[in-house]
Each structure stands twice: as C-alpha cells, then as structure tokens.
C-alpha cells in the first residue's frame, strides 16, 4: 500500500460505507488531502504558500512517514515516483516511507506545467532543494532536542542518531509544521507566474544537497517499482472519471460533429434548439449560453441519449482550403505572400557553403495533423457556486486550468480550486481546459455539480491537434562526404489560444496571432557543420487550419522526419553507410569549440549513435545497396532525435510488403543520453511507450477532413497502432555523471569558460518521456528506403501512400 | 421507476435501477461503484470497458444491462476470486490473479486507463488456451487499444502469467 491519498479516501470501504457520497465539503476535502488534519488546517484555502517554506513541500507524519506535496502530476510517466525518490534520497528515507499528496492549487507548489519532459529535470531540482533544506532543519531540531552538535548527527530511515541517542522525524515534528524557511542558496525563492513559481532549485549533487556518490535510490537500475501501479491493477485507483459529488448531474456537450477550421469552425453559430425534442427523457435540462449548448440529467445514459437526440441547427461551416491537398493550400498561401518568414538560426554562411558543395540536394517533407486522442476522453467534475468553484480534472496544468475556469466564470483565480486526479494520459495540451471550462459553465447554469464526460467524437473532433508541417530542406556535402551546410524552411500554422468553450459562450474572442512553433534542435545541431539556417514560415491560421498545439515532443517528430531523411539522402549520394556518415559528421565537444558555440553538446550525440550501433549490431552497408525483387523485403534505418535537452539515436528494422504497401516495424532501438539518469526503470518504460506511439503516428495517424470539418471521429476513422503491429523494443541509456548541472558550459568570443562546474552546480540531468518519440518515424522512413530504394517523404506512411510511391518509382 | 432486474457481479447479486436498455458499463460504474471497466469510446472499438460474461470477454459499453441478467459478470475487481476458484481454493482475501501480478512485476502500465480491458481479455485467453504462442496472444489482444504504447510489456506479462498458470499457480 503506497498511501496515495486518494487510495485512503476512496477505498472500496469508503465507497460502500458512505454509499458513494465521497465529497462532502471544502473543509473535509482539505483535511483528507493533506494527510493530517493538523498540518492541513492552515493550508485549506488560498494556497499554495511561499516556496521557500519547507512546509510548502512536505508533511512529516507522526508515524515517521513523509507526505510529498506533488508539484507535478502523474500521467503514467512515473514522475511522481521520481519526485518521491528525490525527496526520499535527500531525507535518507526508504521509498516505502513516502506518501504522495495529489496536486491541488490550494496545497501544492507551482513549478509549472507537467510537460516538456521537465518534471525530473526542472521540478525535481526544486523538490531536491526543498527536501535538502527540510533535512537540515530536522537535523537542527534533533541537535537541539538531543543536545548533540549537528555535525555529530546522521539520519537513516527517519531516525536521527548521534552521541548514543536518537529521535525520529515523527517524534520531532510529526503532525506539526516544521516552520523553517530555506536559505537563499537553495534557490527556492518565487519567480513570476500565477501563482508565482518556485525557484530553480538544485541539481543532483549540488552544494547543500546529498553527494551523488552517496545516493541509495537515484541512478540505481531499475529503481523502485512505480507507486501508482498496484492500485491501477486492482481497480482501486481513482481516476477523475470516478469522482462523484452528492447531487451531481451527468452532462454532455452538444456541438457539430467534428470541428471546422479554427475560427468560425470552432465557434459555430447555433441557429435553433428544439428543447421539446428531448422532453421524453426524464429530468433532462438543456443548457445554453450563446452558442454553447449542453445537456444534463441525473442519470448518465439519459444525458448521453439527450445529447444524441437533441435537435439543434447550426450555421454551415465555412469551407476548408486544404481539402484534398493540404500542401497545395500551404504553397498557395506562401505564393500569395501570406506566410511571413522569420530567421530563427543563421550561423556561418549557408549560401556560400552550398554553392561550393560537390553535391546539393533539395527536397520537401510533409507530416499530417496528428491527434492527442487519449483512450479515455476528457472528463471533469465541476461544482460551481456564487462564491467559488471546485474542479476535479486530469489537466497537465492545474494552475493554468484554474485561471481558465476563473476566466470563463468571471471569478478571481483565488476563488477556484483545482484538484488533480489522473485520467487517461493525454500527451500534451489535449482539450482538458475546454472540458474544465465547459463543465464549469454547465455547473453554473444548472446550479448543481456537473460531471462532464466528452464522447469519443468530442475528443477526436475537437482536439487541439499536433499541427501539420511542411519542410523544404536544402543541404550539401563535399567530395569526402562532409556535410557543409543546410537550410530548413518550416511551414506551419501558429498554435491556437482560445478554447471552443470560451468562444462558444462568447466570453472571449478567438485569437489568431503568433508564429509557427519550430523545433530548431533537430534541424542540424546534431552535426558539426557551422553553416546552418532555419527559417520559420507562419501560415495564416484563421479559418484555414485546425487549432493545434503541443503534442508529445512538439514538432520534433515532424522535423526529424524531414531532416534525418535528408541526411540519409546525402549519405546515399556520397555512397556512404548512413551510420558511418553520421559518425563522421556528428557534433562533438571538439567541433563545438571549433564552431565557437555558446552551448556545448558534450559528445552526447556521438555517444548515443555509437551505442545505437552496438544495440543494432550494425553492419556497414550503403542504404538500398542490396535490393531484392521479392514482394516482401527488409531494411534497417537510423535517425538522430532530441527533446528537452536529451539526445537520442533511434533505429528501426522493417519489413515492407510491396503489394499491400504495409510497412511493419519489427524491431525498434533507442539509445538515450539523459545526462544523469535518475530513475532508469521509469525512463525505460517511457521509452517503450514513446517509441510505440511515435511509430504509430508515423505509420498510421492522420486527422482526416472533408470540405468543412474533421471526419476523424473515432478509432475507425483515426487508426492507431495495434498489438499485431507493435515492434519489439531494445533500449539503452548512456549514464553521464560528468556534465555540469546548471549550465552546459559556453565558448564565447573564442574563450572557453566552463560557466558551470560540477563542484558549483552539481550534475546535469535532462528530461525523458518525449525524446524517443522524436525520431522513430524518421528511422522507419530510412529503413523503408533501405528495403525498397524508394523515398517516402510524407507521413503517415500509410499503405496507400506507400503503394503510390512504389508505383511512381516503378518498384511495384 | 423500479424494475425487477438483478445482475450477478463478482459473485454478488445486485438490484439495478437503471432502465433495461442502459449499457452495462454505466450500471457497473454508477450503481455498483466499480472502477475497473471504463468508458473509452462507447462504440466497442477500444476495449477499455471489457468485462467477462460467463468467462468470455464482452464490451460493456454496448451491452444493455437486461442482456446480462441470469449470467455471471466478472470485472477486474473479481479476477483474484476467479483465480482462486480456478485453483479450487477459497480465501477471504484471495491473491492477485497471475495476470495482475505479472502486470505489476513487469511494470506494464503507463496511465493504466486501458489496462482493465487488457487484463480481462488476457484472462479470457488464458482460461481457454494454455501457453499461447506469441501469434495467438497478439491475435486475441488485437481488439484492445493502448495509446501509451504498452503493447510490448503486455506481451511479456501475458507470457509470464501463462507460465504461472500452466504450473497451477506455483511461481
């Protein structure tokens, strides 16, 4: 039993005892959620508190367990186990002594959204600093109590000993506040944000924290089992879908099936509603505010039927320009001068380098819209009164959702309390804010708590997709196969900002400003050439493109699909093995310095590709040099990837059935450099899923649409990878304890300055969860070329698309 | 309006107040407060809602509750008791089904939302097929979707559980 707080509250016994009425009121919630009534009384409203206060981060219980106030949420990525490990490490506790306090805007500190593979990399540093400060405070208290100097004290498993005496954490402060503020050296002072974020904290092994050489938990392979798994297996884990409030109504939104383009297509005009069309369903209420339409009923199935049967007429959707040829629409907009360009990177002299190259290639790569598409559609429980709102959500960003709900209700942020419960993982900014705002409006209108469950077509049809991206790449090599320079032009719409809930209710207007999100890391930083240009071209969003935003490893899979295929095409033009080509051209510490780079790469690229070669038992071979005329052929391909400061090298073994066009990835490989990997078991599990999902996106996933709106509304119209297509996975991480923590070092104006040093800053630990997603698609595409001699430059690499390129190349 | 419908779930009989055409999933969730079976699509496409009906996997999101009266429903919560019955033992707190234990040992889940259906389908498979081949496993499981990408570990866990069950429970 891990003591996850929702286990204690929502155990089967509690369900049966209270007859299913789990939530009674704010003060009761507050008491339960903090784990101990005494510690929580002062934290039951308007939190979280000053991040320099140790009590903002943890609670010591009388039974010598410690509750961690989770500053990041569990998405199934194991980050809460990781944060508990970091806390336990600094306090010299066993993982079994940890209790987890779920994220709650009234209780837990703000270290930003759970995104960007940053929970251990960034929030982990703040948690480490707070736990280290707490440990010092506990030793100081023990010193007073035992009359033994702090320097003579040691702690183990919550027992402080010295001078022949001992006292436990629980005896010192169990059930009480520690009431100590961390010194400035812990870097916890609040920075900007709403509410203010905790400061950066401290890297592993930094001064004031436990030396890495003494670590008992972190860096051990595989590390402890995940604390959330057992309850998920027995069916006792409470997902947000299981939250029930007395008097709660079940709700469903009513919108046209499948959104139109962001603009009129996400704020469709409601022409008429026939409330009488659902009067035969008991106790149904139709809710309307502007163009926002929903139904509520005491029984869930009644709400479902009412939403399906309610007769509502909507104004026709404006036509979408990209129907039938998304890329043609992008080109037309570009030719018409509607895609303003901006230079993001321009090092060296790309034009001169390409003009002098012995071979240059110029290609276009395309990647369709993908969806977040969690298995469980969005769900939110909202209880709105005149004075405040209580929200239960699986948002990746509780504080952001708090502001979003306050905005739509016309309340102040402090009047809204968001409590996190895990849902079905969403891999980015899926419509959890749309769902939370919708549920809040429905509760406000119905004057009752409302549980809103999106239907499958709501989730598929109104997702904030990963945007479609088109890339033009020019690159060149010299006679010896050295990459001399590259220019990447990346087209895409800007990310959206206004939810349908806000637009439909009329609370806020939709915003179309911004520039397209470009992943610059994977457009050449992996290679040693100093000549590199990256240009972003922002397509006009309004009424042209679907709303889109961050989807796992944002823009990295789309970008590497292009860039790493171009690298492969250059290797082929040089008549070189793609592995050897990459090894020859990879960025190293030496090339960093030669190029006068401000940020060093510490040979991380070189180490991952070398490790990958070992994992794959790579045999040198020029791609597509051993083609067969058989119907089923095999190939191997590799690609560099990166995300959140972590470098990866991906490999794929594929079989291709030329007749059906089916690409099957039979084996996928990944070598990863996360700097100091703190939770090896956790990141390996993430890598498995990340590669399967990345392969699914590259092989199957495409948001389909007709002349007005999205037609991908369920799993039949948006296929994803299934069991039979899942590859075998081989994963390995390169453990690094030699990279300084707070800076990767700089070379500026010819002078090499290790701006960070391990003694001063501890060691670097970067992010996981997303990096392997970034390049599995490119590896598969390169493997396809190896197998068939044909390039496929558009993803997803569906059977139809494969047959088309093979036919065009007269291979099949 | 009361009806006289009663359903047998995990060995206990329950009255049902929902209308007869209500899909079983909503009865299990809202009246019996069971959290195992979950809403994923309502279209029988994903398998998150799976339960065993007289030992065979069904999609509770499209099965009207009236259709299961007189039959035995087993949800995720009932797998330990099912395993105990298979071995002919009774226990107040039965051990986890070998599938559940394997899922923990192999650290299968990410978010875990789909795993109810995965374990239910695997329980159906292993009750009828001893030591299934990899191909048989993939075919049996192909109707269950996981978005987090845990298929490789599920495969490992099913093989582990099959080995345990073939030995009659000894690890």
What does this structure look like?
The complex is a heterodimer of chains A (812) and B (171). Chain A is α+β, with helices and mostly antiparallel strands and 812 residues long. Chain A is 29% helix and 20% strand. Chain A has a seven-stranded mixed sheet with strand order 9-10-7-17-14-15-16, with helices on both faces. In chain A, strand 4 (154-156) and strand 5 (159-162) form a beta hairpin. The radius of gyration of chain A is 27 Å and the shape is globular. Mean pLDDT of chain A is 91; it is low at 1-45. Chain B is α+β, with helices and mostly antiparallel strands and 171 residues long. Helices cover 36% and strands 11% of the residues of chain B. Chain B contains six helices and five strands. Chain B has helices at residues 24-30, 79-87, 98-105, 115-128, 134-141, 151-166, and strands spanning 6-9, 12-15, 50-53, 56-59, 72-74. A five-stranded mixed sheet of chain B has the order 2-1-5-3-4, with helices on one face. Chain B is globular. The N and C termini of chain B lie far apart (50 Å). The model of chain B has no long low-confidence stretch (mean pLDDT 94). Classes of the chains: A alpha+beta (812), B alpha+beta (171). Chains A and B meet through helix 2, helix 8, helix 9 and helix 20 of A and helix 1, helix 3, helix 4, helix 5 and helix 6 of B.
